[in-house]
Design goal:
The chain has helices at 34-44, 58-70, 88-95, 123-134, 148-156, 181-189, 212-226, 246-256, 262-277, and strands at residues 4-8, 48-52, 74-79, 104-109, 138-141, 163-165, 194-198, 231-233. An 8-stranded parallel β-sheet has the order 1-2-3-4-5-6-7-8, sandwiched between helices. Helix 7 links the parallel strand 7 and strand 8. It is globular and about 50 Å long. Helices cover 37% and strands 13% of the residues. The two termini are 15 Å apart.
Amino acid sequence: MPVIDSHHHFWRYNPADYGWIPDAWSALRRDYLPPDLERELAPAGVDGVVSVQARQSLEETTWLLDFAARHAFVRGVVGWVPLIATDLAAHLDHLATHPAATKLRAFRHVLQAEADDAYMLRDDFNRGVAELTRRGYVYDILILERHLPHAIAFVDRHPDATFVLDHIAKPRIAAGELEPWAKNLRELARRPNVACKLSGMVTEADVAAWTPAQLQPYFDVVMDAFGPARLLFGSDWPVCLAGVGYARWKATVEAALPALSASERAAVFGDNARRIYRLP
C-alpha cells in the first residue's frame, strides 16, 4: 500500500514569518518547496504527503492548495482559517471554490504559541471548530505537553469531531521527563475520535546528540495509548532536518515500533492518514 507522510511543511523563508527558527537551526533559513521534498520521497519509500500550514494566514492556505493542484504527490492539506472570526463561514465557502479544494482536509491553529494556555477553551474558538466539524473537516491539535489537560476538555466539547494530535504533544524529551505527559496523553487517547502523529520528536530532544534509545520510551507510551489504528507516520520536514534526515527519520520510526502485522504497519504508514483525512 502507498506510504503517506502525514505531516510536513513548505515555506519561502523570511525572518518575519519564520522568526521561531533559532540560530542553531540556521540551515532551515532557506526556501523549502515541492521539488526539494520530492527528491526526498522515493529514496525513503514515501508515495504522498499531507502539507501542513506553517503561517497563520489565509494566504498560506491558498498557497498550499496551489501546490496541491500542481503536484500529485501532495495528497492533502491542513490549512489555517481565523476560527474566532464572525465571517469564518465566508472564508470556508471561498476556500471551497479552489481547484484543489478536495485536498483541503483539515485545519489547525498554533495553540502552542498563544499566551493563554486555555485559548482552545474560548467559546468563539469552539464555535469555529464546530463549524469545521459540520463541514466534514478534521482539526489538528498543535500543543505542548503542558496543554494536554486543556486539550482533553477541548476534545470533550466535540464528540462528533475528528482530531489529530501533532508531534505527540511535544513531551520534554531533552529533559528525559515522561510525566505528567504520559498520564495526560493516555487520558486523551481514551477519546476514540483522537489520533496521533509520530512526528516532531527529534526537535524535542537534543538535536545534536539524540539517540533512538532516548526516544523509545515515548514511542512505547504512544503505541500503548493509541495503538496502530490511530497512529500516523509524519516527518515534520523540513523542521526535522535540524536533527535528522528525512529517510533516517522514517527508518527510526519503523525500528521503534513493536512487531506489527503487515496490516498494522500499513495503517501507521499510510492507511490511517488516508482514512482519517479522507484523502482523495
